[in-house]
Automatic annotation (TrEMBL):
Membrane-spanning residues: none
UniProt cross-references to InterPro entries, sorted A to Z: GH, GH10, GH10_dom
Family to which the UniProt record says this protein belongs: Belongs to the glycosyl hydrolase 10 (cellulase F) family.
Key words, A-Z: Carbohydrate metabolism, Glycosidase, Hydrolase, Polysaccharide degradation, Signal, Xylan degradation
One GO MF term: endo-1,4-beta-xylanase activity
Official protein name in the record: Beta-xylanase
Organism ancestry: Bacteria, Bacillati, Actinomycetota, Actinomycetes, Micrococcales
Top-level enzyme category: hydrolase
Organism annotation: Terracoccus luteus
Domain GH10, chain residue ranges per copy: 68-411
Region feature (Disordered): 1-29
EC numbers for this chain: 3.2.1.8
Length: 430
């Protein structure tokens, strides 16, 4: 997922046909978002004590670090649970010192928002450009952060030479399969030993609203060209390239189970993963993107925990990989209009984290961008117009923590045994 991708729009209709979108002006979204700066909770600051020096006048003593829960980072608070707290990072935004400071200190894992996607890494066939990805990796390594690699196989953000070659007939099925294998293995080998989790296959199945013949199935470019067997192939190729990385299937709208019927996407993915595992495919984890909206009914922490535990029963780890909670912006951004949205948003962020904490096999919780300035929702059209559903992050446009951030702090600080235990590490499947 990204600001230039087809997004996972939880519980809402979305467009799935385009592979890229041009940048839409953010003025409207930012103008409304800017009002949040005065509404967000003030960050806890370090305390300064004043003492009398030997000459008599008061002098400032060294600044003392605030170790109350509100003064600690999310990553620090999550450490005792062995839970990685992550964010998607845009390398271009790292030129902003405030963005860079938060990204480098608040989180213990990072995901490249776009820098590792195929259209970026191989814009010309046979010529790799790892520069953006390496800038991202250098940032992560400099700050001792784990890396989630995103993404190896996806129907979107493919290089033009690939899609146009298939459309024209210049690339046939056999050649296409070889190209995909080469891409997966070249990418994984380039970053071998440096990536903790890979999103190997992303968004491979339909939703209930675009299902064919009344049932969930496989969708998109790769299924159409190679058939559903490409999913197993991709995991096997990735494992050959790096025996130690954790290999994930990643998707949206799999936050909770439905009725288990033919239109239950979560149940379809569950059965898919079960079948892959039974057939010896080296899949180590399932990532639930968790793109939510306050427009729709909330999931409870119990639903989230149940879903994660059921997937864990298959022998895989789980992760919440692209968490954000957007809001339908009111006509007038008054405090009376915004406060209920911020409280609902905080509930959703908290429910997701509580569910993850309860399941010991949920090993990471990643927000898809941490501030309202850089959220992909600022320009995306979810059906109400570009940027009309936004304010999706845990920091506002002034880099001040929102109620959702404080809710995450409290969840991490106050969760404890017996209901919340340390994570159980996942071992790579041979």
């Amino acid at each position: 997922m990204s600001r230039t991708s087809t997004p996972g729009a939880s519980r809402t209709t979305r467009t799935t046909t385009s592979t890229r979108t041009t940048t839409h002006p953010r003025r409207r979204g930012r103008a409304l978002a800017a009002t949040l700066a005065g509404l967000a909770l003030t960050a806890v600051t370090a305390t300064v004590t004043v003492t009398a020096g030997p000459a008599g006048p008061a002098s400032a003593a060294p600044v003392h670090e605030d170790r109350t829960p509100q003064g600690r980072t999310l990553g620090d608070l999550a450490a005792r649970h062995d839970l990685a707290i992550g964010t998607a990072v845009d390398p271009a935004a790292l030129t902003d010192p405030r963005y860079r400071s938060i990204a480098s200190t608040e989180f213990t894992s990072v995901t490249a928002e776009n820098a590792m996607k195929w259209e970026v890494t191989e814009p010309v066939r046979g010529t790799y450009d790892w520069s953006a990805a390496e800038r991202f990796m250098a940032f992560a390594e400099r700050n001792d952060q784990k890396v989630r690699g995103h993404v190896l196989v996806w129907n979107n953000q493919l290089p033009a030479w690939l899609t146009e070659g298939v459309a024209s007939g210049a690339i046939d099925r056999a050649e296409l399969r070889g190209i995909l294998k080469k891409h997966v293995q070249d990418t994984v080998r380039h970053f071998k030993g440096r990536v903790w989790q890979w999103d190997v296959v992303n968004e491979a199945v339909t939703d209930s609203y675009d299902a064919v013949d009344g049932r969930i199935g496989y969708k998109g470019f790769w299924a159409e060209q190679l058939g559903p067997g490409y999913v197993a192939d991709a995991f096997r190729w990735a494992r050959e390239a790096d025996p130690k990385a954790l290999l994930f299937y990643n998707d949206y709208n799999i936050d909770a189970f439905g009725d288990g019927g033919p239109l239950d996407k979560t149940a379809f993915v569950y059965r898919m993963v079960k079948r892959l595992r039974e057939n010896g495919v080296p899949i180590d984890g399932v990532g639930s993107q968790a793109h939510l909206s306050t427009r729709y009914g909330n999931y409870s922490a119990f639903q989230i925990a149940d879903t994660l535990e059921r997937f864990a029963g298959l022998g895989v780890a789980t992760a919440l990989t692209e968490v954000d909670v957007r809001n339908l912006l009111p006509a007038e951004a008054t405090s009376d209009a915004l406060n209920p949205l911020l409280q609902a948003q905080a509930f959703d962020y908290s429910a997701l984290l509580t569910g993850c904490l309860t399941s010991r096999h949920c090993i990471s919780y990643t927000v898809w961008g941490f501030d309202d300035n850089h959220s992909w929702t600022n320009t995306w059209d979810f059906g109400s117009g570009p940027g009309r559903e936004a304010l999706a992050a845990i920091y506002d446009t002034g880099y001040q923590p929102k109620p959702a951030y404080r809710a995450l702090q409290a969840d991490l600080a106050y969760s404890a045994p017996p209901l919340v235990q340390r994570r159980i590490p996942q071992r790579p499947t041979p």
